[in-house]
Each structure stands twice: as structure tokens, then as C-alpha cells.
Amino acid sequence: MASCPENAAKVRIVEVRVWPFNLQAEKLETLEVQVVRALQNAHGLEELCWTRTGSLSDRVIMELFPHLKALKKLEITGDSRSWDPALLISSLRRPPRHLRCCATEDPPRSGTYVLEKMDDGDEGGSAEEDHRSNGQEREARAIERLSLLLPDHKLAYALPALCKRLGGQLKGISILSNVRLPR
Fold it and tell me: What is the mean pLDDT of the chain?
């Protein structure tokens, strides 16, 4: 999918349930970059299931979520040792179409990212076009279903902010938990 964007654009559902942790660090990082690029090419991705503990990272969240404009269902592991729930919450608010989130280095190693303007030839439109389609685009890109598997305390306490960020489009939330959730 990373090397065939035309095929990736047709993908609607992706599940990441296994991750080869026995690889060397450099190969794991290369794999992460390839998976993120593949999913960035999946413009029609509606469902993402990423439940392999330890495989989701802050780099993946920052590089991936701004590109998932058609995402309706998100299922993630609740073990947030390898990623920050606050970063997930902030990344669910996607930047306007004429901006994109980019790592400051390739492959992204430092975790430093910037928003930069797209060139006229990129997929973004003018600010006027963004303003006209803003309501429709937001509605079309809203996550409707959220599933969390065994959220840890850090993620459990971030749930109210996460639900608030997802707003009125959230139609369902599933939480499989052994943690006492805040009210």
C-alpha cells in the first residue's frame, strides 16, 4: 500500500493486531514508517483497528491521524505506555485541508512535527474553498465509533476530553476495562 497509492485508496478497513517486536530497532522504525505511509495513502479508510500493545506510538499518531479524513471507527489498545493520550486527543482535531502535519526529519526520529502549508499543486484547496466546505468536511470526517481495549489509568482519565473532542458525531463508544473509570 505504501508503494501503490492507487490501490491503497480503495482500502476501507485496516487491522493492526500483530507487530514483529523481535526485529532490530532500525528495521522496526522502517516498518513503522512504511505502515504510516501506506495508511496515509488509504484516503478512503473508514475503520482502523490498532490493538497490538506497544506498536502505536506518538510518531504514528502525529503522522497518521491528520490524514485519516474518512475515518469513522477507531479501535485502539488502551495501554498508553508507548503513546500519549493527550496527543491522540489533539490529533483528532484535524488541520484545515491546506495544511499538513510533517515530521521535521525523515524518517521521524525526534518526535518533532510541524504544520506546513501545502503547495498549490497539493490536495488542499484555497482558504475560501475550505471555508465553504468546512461544515460538510467536518461532518464527513467525524469518528462515529470508538473502542478502547483495556485502557490504563492515564487513558481512562483522558476519556472525558477524548469524548468531548469527538463531539456530537460520536454514536458509540465501547470500553473493555479492568480500570475504574472516572465519572
Answer: 75
